[in-house]
Each structure stands twice: as C-alpha cells, then as structure tokens.
Write a structure and sequence with these properties.
Helices cover 49% and strands 18% of the residues. The chain is of the alpha/beta class and 337 residues long. A 6-stranded mixed β-sheet has the order 7-6-8-5-9-11. A 5-stranded mixed β-sheet has the order 2-1-3-10-4. Helix 3 links the parallel strand 1 and strand 2. The protein is globular. The relative contact order is 0.16.
C-alpha cells in the first residue's frame, strides 16, 4: 500500500511539474472573438484568419483571436451591438452597418461616389470628413481600426437587368441601411431586408428576385446559382471597416493596442489587393458555371439615382457637400482611365 501511495504521489508531482513548465503564453492567452457574416471560403474569412495570426504574433501570444464566420454569433447589426456590450471583440462589415449608431455614415453609401478601387482607397484613407465620423465611434462603444475591402456592389437577379426599367416593382434583398434603400428604390426595386445567411434560400424559394453585394460576397455565397444574371452596376463602393469593442480596447496595454492596429492595417493592405485582383477571376468562374455576366451602360442607372443626393441634402445638410467635396477631390487627383 505504501509503495502504491509513493508512486501515486510521484506521478502527481511529475504532472504538476510538467504543467508549470508550460510556456506562460500558452496557458495565459486571452481569447478574443471575431464575428463576421461571410462564408468560410470568402476573402473576409481569409483576412480574419490572417489578422488573428498577426495579433497572436505581435502580442507574443498574450491574445488569441478566434474567428466565427457565416453569422455564427450574430448578423451584421447584432454584431455591432455586441461590440458595444463587449460580447464580441471584433467585427468587419459595410460602413453602412455602423450608420445605425453614427447616422452620418449613411453618406458613405451615396451612389457612384468613386469609379475605381484606387479612388475608393484614397477616399477612405484621406477624407477628413470621413475620418471625423470614424473618430466619433469610441463614444458609441466601438472603434474603427482599419478599412478592409469588399468591393463595388453589383446585382444578381433571376431576370436580366439591362436598365432600371427591368427593376420596376421587383423585390430585391439588401441589408438595413437608409441610403442603400433610397438608392435601390430610386432604381425601381422594392427592398426586402434579410440577414445574409438567409438570402440564398429566399431567392431560391422566390421570396425575392435577387440581391446586391460585392463580387467576392456573391461568389462566396454562390448567389449566382439561384440568381444567374450578374449585372455589374457598381452602384456603391462598399469597403468593410474592421472595428473593435471599445470595452476590449480599454483593457489592452498601449503596446497591445499598437499591435492590434498594426495587424489590422497590414491585413487591410492584403485584402485590398486580394479583392481587386480576384474580381475578374471570380466573374469568369461564375460564368463557367452558368452565370450571365452583364456590363450595362450605367448612364440610365446614374440618372435614376440623382434624386438620392437631393434627399440626402434634405436630411444631412452640409455634411453631404463636405463629403462630396472630398470625393470630387479624389476623382480629380486620380482620374479614371
């Protein structure tokens, strides 16, 4: 009996010694939750995984970012609410999603502000008006870290969409945003709000006739399978800012705050180039699988949405002209080829 007790004690001592010999970073890492609504195969997920790896590296393992794609934790609006509450730590979504809490950000979804990626990047990086809006976010419970990319928003519909006349009275899914609703209604659609994970089935069952999203999102969610007419309207430039819970931010040391910002900025550079370089490849692959890619004359679409600017001025006043001035300056500095 004494011999057994001796061995048992020796085994326990050895186990405890092995436990305490583990590196501190492995046992003390704080897990941070990253929620987004895109599918695992999309660029958003790849960027989130890259960001997670960089945060772990730059904080020397003090923090581990765990990524939850496809709306596992929350849809886009709920994710922002969870940031405010501290229930999740990071999310990435269209600028318009944050407009519920910062209404002036609705103006970021004004139609046809920029014509290409280079203009869009410069607008988001250099616009003093836009940076001033982002600076208001910490008081609302979240913080903008970097501007990630999703691309220009386009249409996927069951029927061809050669002009706004083809949109008249048809139901189109979008996300909950005032400016987007005004734009789509001006084109002629009846707007239906649905969470992204429910859209494929809604189109398949006929609840809506199509949806609008950037090419990468269309590709990752395979919307072209149920709405094969992919029309490159490019009606809104739609990057996806990375945001963080202000409650989480406040818990970080200055060094770890800098590490998170660095990880977000480096990932932003990668996803911007990834999205731009992927557009043609993804369109070609969709076409090979039966999608019909249309590049309509955008003149009629631009004319249809002109009333949106007047409507925006009625509600937002001088902010509209301030932001448009920044966009005009960008287009002049980087004229479309």
């Amino acid at each position: 009996m004494k011999r057994r007790t001796f061995f048992a004690r020796s085994l326990l001592t050895a186990s405890l010694a092995a436990l305490f010999a583990l590196p501190l970073s492995a046992s003390a890492a704080t897990v941070l939750k990253f929620s987004h609504t895109d599918q695992p195969g999309g660029a958003r997920q790849k960027a989130a995984e890259m960001f997670a790896q960089k945060v772990g590296e730059y904080t020397q393992g003090r923090y581990e970012v765990k990524v939850y794609p496809a709306g596992q934790l929350a849809n886009d609006p709920k994710a922002v609410e969870q940031l405010q509450l501290g229930g999740i730590d990071f999310t990435v979504s269209s600028t318009g999603t944050y407009a519920t809490h910062l209404p002036t950000l609705n103006l970021s979804l004004l139609p046809y502000l920029v014509e290409n990626y280079e203009q869009g990047w410069k607008l988001y990086d250099d616009s003093k008006w836009l940076q001033a809006q982002f600076a208001k976010a910490p008081a609302k419970g979240f913080r903008f870290l970097a501007t990630w990319e999703a691309g220009f928003r386009d249409m996927t519909t069951k029927d061809p969409l050669a002009s706004p006349a083809d949109a008249d009275g048809k139901k189109l899914r979008s996300f909950p945003n005032e400016m987007m609703r005004w734009t789509l209604e001006a084109i002629g659609f009846n707007v239906v709000i649905l969470p992204l994970p429910e859209v494929y089935l809604a189109i398949q069952q006929g609840a809506v006739s199509g949806q609008e999203n950037p090419i990468d999102t269309i590709f990752a969610n395979k919307f072209y399978e149920v709405a094969p007419n992919v029309t490159l309207t490019h009606h809104v430039y739609s990057p996806i800012p990375l945001t963080m819970s202000e409650k989480t931010w406040a818990k970080l040391s200055a060094a770890d705050q800098a590490a998170v910002v660095k990880a977000g900025a480096e990932t932003a550079t990668w996803i911007r180039n990834e999205i731009r370089s992927n557009d043609d490849r993804q369109l070609a692959e969709m076409q090979s699988k039966g999608a019909k890619i249309a590049r309509p004359n955008l003149g009629a679409f631009r004319d249809a949405v002109k009333p949106v600017y007047a409507k925006a001025r009625e509600k937002y006043g001088a902010d509209v002209d301030a932001f448009i001035a920044d966009a005009d300056a960008v287009r002049k500095a980087l004229p479309a080829k």
